[in-house]
């Protein structure tokens, strides 16, 4: 090791320049992290692949300015030098780049490494007197590039990229095998076909060029320095929180959601209102901000009237417009900028905008986000396209934030563009599984099928010959992740119930690329017409699918129950080997239970006698299962389980999910039987892991709802003469059971929807992060609950499988038995999964709405009978009402007053027309008055509405509903059943989109066929819906509007 001195020029606290001399140690052994190392480096962790054609060494300014290009997955073999890394780290305005760079280096999916060049004896070069920092950094990076070339004995060409033309001239011919070129040359020569990189490069370089030409006039107040903000928060002068823009009034209304414990301001228990963009002071929706409150005399109220395009509002939050804490943003603690989808303004506008520069104001799809100024020469070519952009900065001298474009999604309005928009807007990244990920998967083919490993037979409990195992799923289900068994043990005193779940974590090692990808996705995403799997198909549809007649690995829970009382005598958890005998679907299982004549496919080949014997055995097992499940259900009921279950979930599905009507109206008992067994398994696994790891187990709780959210439910029930008690889950369930209008089944259904919307979300958490009284699951009435039964499509279940394995090892004292994640890490994981689940639901809801709009897009509302439908009023607002259209499962706003001040009036025959007048609102009805008289609309009234599509250049298309009669729609009786209407809706839209895609195949980027098959399947999401019903987990409802 060599000691040397290093001179640093630092700035003192008071701004004086200080020269510091530091001891600097140089070593010979600094790992190169290359697979083709010739010198025997100790290369732990990530290693540069030996198969690449070259390695890339970017200099400091390339890393700082063009990191996004280097982030592209296609660019591999990147060596980040310590010099470049520190240059980004120490640049104050670049903390976001620094975080991204660290994330990139940590991400094993990206082939790049960090080289400590300044500690390497032969690559280090001291800074010479008078040498500028930039020049010195470039020299260091070049020296590192040369070192790599020599160290790898010339086996790999090294390409240094720099934007410094002088460096290109100076270094490019010094060493053979070390190339020094500009980033543009690099992309053109090495990645001529990587369009994304070229576009990104030109958009960033343009943004950099324009950066110098900022105006100087101040548009906003300066943000206060961090110390002042911190002191202000401590003293209670300021409050901190997350900025939430009201998307219906994005220009004028935003709220700060207060983060409780951090604020000393005790009399503040509501959100803080921020009016207007000046007071918002450059904060963007989602940013962590600090606000200063105005004196009480300046407080204002929020708006309660309906506005165009407004759909759902959280029940109970429709407080009257009383003044609330109001303030202005004085500083920003954390920018939470993400990728935004934008649309270019029409040509006329861009021409007037860009007279002096290439700058264009683009409009984000998300109405909460301000317009973004980007520099581009493609404004013309990108007319009518949707483009992804990122915000770079927002100076106080700039009315709008500055940003740059990242990539083009395609033409607005086309199905694929709109679906991609939904994914990006919800931060859902589902690229096809990479080759490296797929290489981790077992290789199977018809010639070389997968076989049980003899080593596994030894360590697993073999149930293949001892247990009759079967699955019950929706018809046509491909990924079977749970199976059941039940039988009486010899002696007849004890029943043994078994739940056997696919052993996914056997195939997916913790920390492997597949594991990291699954963790990043956190769930399988179900959209209206497709799904994006969490795991590669070889696992989800094959090795981890517990299909009939094949050997499979499982994680099992086996209960020994007293045959008479069904009390639990013993529980066994462990890894097993199973072979499912029957792959039943619900209808078949139900038919067998009823003793109906049903054909079991597995038995068709057998002779009558054998067939009858087997059939009797299977039927007996199903009967026993039903008996046990009824008992379990009754036990939970006594303990206060919410009786909403299937019914409640079904109503929720009607509102939030697509193809809801596929769920049978009268669920078969077998659904509940299977669901009850899964709940039981989840509950017992939760107990096991919580007892083994009281501080670090992943559970799922469902907090009791806040009473004020029940206002709408209670008032609406009252309007119909029902009393609704919300005192406890049991009381609520009983009330809902009673609240049935024999004339109109929709009344009960809508009340259940309201109850569901008042619920909190069920959420994952780490046991160390909550006190034990917060573990409770309100909906299921269980003291502990988790997710264990669907590891193929939920990452939480994979975490739980690993925890259960650790708990079993702990018991057997076998090997290492500690869970690998600490409480803090597990809590972070829980938050991540919760966020992804919310995004998944949001994306599903948006895709459903997209399909609904596409369905109506080409229909003429004045002529087409499809556009006229029966609607029922379920909420009253200041200038209109919210309605539900059963035929299409649609919800929306119907206005009774328009912008011209006209109101809807009803004639003798019920038909409606607009006249000038006034609106009067009551709790359970709303009236309009004009010269013609008074017209009233009440809760639960059936009316007739006309549905039309409201086009939007920039945002998602939406549906507009207009009341045309206060009477029920005449054809209401003859409507086709919901099932047909909804699934046909999706099918028809898909067919039209495919036809269009065919017509203009040449236009814009389209998914290749492989990509489609690789990562998505077009099956309807019936499977997921039924799974939800089975779990009875209360579905998290969207809270985007809960202001
Ligand atoms: Zn080496």
Describe this structure in words.
This protein folds into four domains: 2-193, 5'-nuclease (Rossmann fold, 3-Layer(aba) Sandwich), CATH 3.40.50.1010; 226-334, OB fold (Dihydrolipoamide Acetyltransferase, E2P), CATH 2.40.50; 413-434 and 448-704 and 760-853, no CATH class; 859-965, OB fold (Dihydrolipoamide Acetyltransferase, E2P). It is built from 28 helices and 38 strands. A hairpin with a 7-residue loop joins strand 36 (942-950) and strand 37 (958-965). By secondary structure, the protein is α+β, with helices and mostly antiparallel strands. The model is unreliable at 308-320, 643-666, 972-982 and 1000-1043 (pLDDT under 50). The protein is 33% helix and 23% strand. Bound molecules: zinc ion. Residues 32, 34, 37, 39, 41, 151 line the site of zinc ion. Its main location: cytoplasm.
Whole-number tally of structural domains:
4
Q: What is the rounded Rg?
A: 32 Å
Poorly predicted segments: 308-320, 643-666, 972-982, 1000-1043
The main β sheet shows up as:
7 strands, mixed
Unique bound compounds: zinc ion
Terminal CA distance reads 62 Å
User: How many helix segments?
Assistant: 28
- Summed over residues and divided by their number, the pLDDT gives a mean of 82
Q: State the shape.
A: globular
Derived from helix and strand composition plus strand pairing, the structural class reads alpha+beta
Biggest sheet strand line-up: 18-25-24-21-20-19-26
Percent helix: 25-40%
- Give the tally of β-strands: 38
Strand content: 15-25%
């Amino acid at each position: 090791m060599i000691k040397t001195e290093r001179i640093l020029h630092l700035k003192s606290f008071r701004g004086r320049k200080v020269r510091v001399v530091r001891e600097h140690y140089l070593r010979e052994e600094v790992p190169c992290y290359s697979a083709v190392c010739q010198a025997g480096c100790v290369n732990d962790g990530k290693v540069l692949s030996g198969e690449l054609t070259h390695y890339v060494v970017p200099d400091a300014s390339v890393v700082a300015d063009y990191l996004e290009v280097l982030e592209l997955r296609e660019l591999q073999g990147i060596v980040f030098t310590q010099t470049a890394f520190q240059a980004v780290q120490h640049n104050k305005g670049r903390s976001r780049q620094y975080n991204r760079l660290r994330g990139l280096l940590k991400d094993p999916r990206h082939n790049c490494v960090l080289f400590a060049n300044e500690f390497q004896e032969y690559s280090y070069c001291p800074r010479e007197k008078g040498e500028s920092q930039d020049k010195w950094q470039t020299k260091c990076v070049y020296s590192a590039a040369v070192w790599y070339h020599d160290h790898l004995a010339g086996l790999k060409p090294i390409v240094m990229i720099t934007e410094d033309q002088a460096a290109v001239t100076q270094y490019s011919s010094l060493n053979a095998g070390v190339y020094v070129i500009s980033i543009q040359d690099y992309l053109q020569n090495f990645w001529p076909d990587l369009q994304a990189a070229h576009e990104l490069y030109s958009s960033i370089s343009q943004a950099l060029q324009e950066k110098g030409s900022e105006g100087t006039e101040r548009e906003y107040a300066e943000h206060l320095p961090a110390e002042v903000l911190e002191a202000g928060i401590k003293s209670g002068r300021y409050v901190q929180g997350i900025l939430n823009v009201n998307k219906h009034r994005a220009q004028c209304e935003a709220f700060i959601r207060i983060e409780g414990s951090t604020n000393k301001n005790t009399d503040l228990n509501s959100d803080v209102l921020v009016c207007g963009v000046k007071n918002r002071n450059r904060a963007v929706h989602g940013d962590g901000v600090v606000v200063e409150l105005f004196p009480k005399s300046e407080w204002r109220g929020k708006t309660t009237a309906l506005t165009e395009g407004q759909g759902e509002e959280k029940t109970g939050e429709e407080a009257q417009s009383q003044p609330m804490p109001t303030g202005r943003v004085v500083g920003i603690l954390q920018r939470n900028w993400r990728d935004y989808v934008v649309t270019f303004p029409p040509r006329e506008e861009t021409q007037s905008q860009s007279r002096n520069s290439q700058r264009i104001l683009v409009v984000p799809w998300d109405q909460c986000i301000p317009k973004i100024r980007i520099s581009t020469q493609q404004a013309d070519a990108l007319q009518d396209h949707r483009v992804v952009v990122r915000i770079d900065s927002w100076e106080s001298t700039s009315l709008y934030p500055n940003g740059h474009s990242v990539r083009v999604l395609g033409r607005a309005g086309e199905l694929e563009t709109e679906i991609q928009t939904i994914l990006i807007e919800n931060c859902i990244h589902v690229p096809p599984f990479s080759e490296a990920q797929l290489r981790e998967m077992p290789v199977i083919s018809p010639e070389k099928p997968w076989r049980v490993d003899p080593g596994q037979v030894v360590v697993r409990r073999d149930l293949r010959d001892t247990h009759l195992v079967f699955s019950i799923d929706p018809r046509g289900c491909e990924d079977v992740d749970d199976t059941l068994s039940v039988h009486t043990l010899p002696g007849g005193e004890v029943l043994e119930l078994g739940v056997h779940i696919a052993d996914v974590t056997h195939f997916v090692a913790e920390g492997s690329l597949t594991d990291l990808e699954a963790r990043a996705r956190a769930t399988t995403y179900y959209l209206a017409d497709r799904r994006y799997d969490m795991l590669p198909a070889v696992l989800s549809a094959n090795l981890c699918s517990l299909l009939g007649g094949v050997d499979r690995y499982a994680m099992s829970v086996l209960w020994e129950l007293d045959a008479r009382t069904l009390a639990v005598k013993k529980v066994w958890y462990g890894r097993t080997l199973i072979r499912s005998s029957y792959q039943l679907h619900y209808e078949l299982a139900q038919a067998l239970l009823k003793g109906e004549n049903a054909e079991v496919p597995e038995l068709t080949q057998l002779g009558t006698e054998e067939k009858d014997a087997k059939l009797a055995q299977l039927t007996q097992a199903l009967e026993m299962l039903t008996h046990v499940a009824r008992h379990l259900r009754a036990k939970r009921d006594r303990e206060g389980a919410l009786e909403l279950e299937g019914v409640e979930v079904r109503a929720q599905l009607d509102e939030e999910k697509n193809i809801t009507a596929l769920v049978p109206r009268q669920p078969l008992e077998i659904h509940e039987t299977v669901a009850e067994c899964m709940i039981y398994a989840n509950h017992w696994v939760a107990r096991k892991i919580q007892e083994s790891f009281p501080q670090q187990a992943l559970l799922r709780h469902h907090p009791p709802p806040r009473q004020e959210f029940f206002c709408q439910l209670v008032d609406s029930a009252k309007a119909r003469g029902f009393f609704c008690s919300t005192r406890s889950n049991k009381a609520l369930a009983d009330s809902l059971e009673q609240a049935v209008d024999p004339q109109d089944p929709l009344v009960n259904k809508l009340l259940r929807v309201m109850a569901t919307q008042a619920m909190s979300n069920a959420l994952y958490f780490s046991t160390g992060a909550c006190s034990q009284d917060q573990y409770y699951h309100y909906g299921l009435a269980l003291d502990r609950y988790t997710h264990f039964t669907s590891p193929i499509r939920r990452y939480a279940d994979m975490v739980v499988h690993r925890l259960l394995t650790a708990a079993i090892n702990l018991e057997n004292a076998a090997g290492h038995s500690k869970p690998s994640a600490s409480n803090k890490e597990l809590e972070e994981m829980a938050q991540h999964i919760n966020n992804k689940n919310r995004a998944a639901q949001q994306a599903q809801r948006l895709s459903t709405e997209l399909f609904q709009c596409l369905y109506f897009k080409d229909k003429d509302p004045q002529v087409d009978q499809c556009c006229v439908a029966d609607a029922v009023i379920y909420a009253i607002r200041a200038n209109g009402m919210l309605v539900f259209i059963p035929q299409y499962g649609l919800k929306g706003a119907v206005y009774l007053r328009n912008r011209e001040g006209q109101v809807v009036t009803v004639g003798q025959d019920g038909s409606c027309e607009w006249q000038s007048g006034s609106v009067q609102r009551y709790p359970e009805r709303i009236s309009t008055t004009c010269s013609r008289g008074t017209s009233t609309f009440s809760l639960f009234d059936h009316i007739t509405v006309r549905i039309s599509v409201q086009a939007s250049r920039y945002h998602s298309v939406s549906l507009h509903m207009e009341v045309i009669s206060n009477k029920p729609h005449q054809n209401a009786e003859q409507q086709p059943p919901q099932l047909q209407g909804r699934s046909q809706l999706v099918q028809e839209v898909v067919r039209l989109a495919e036809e269009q895609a065919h017509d203009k195949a040449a236009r814009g980027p389209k998914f290749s066929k492989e990509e489609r098959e690789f990562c998505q399947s077009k099956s309807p999401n019936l499977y997921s819906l039924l799974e939800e019903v089975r779990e009875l987990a209360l579905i998290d409802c969207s809270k985007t509007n809960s202001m």
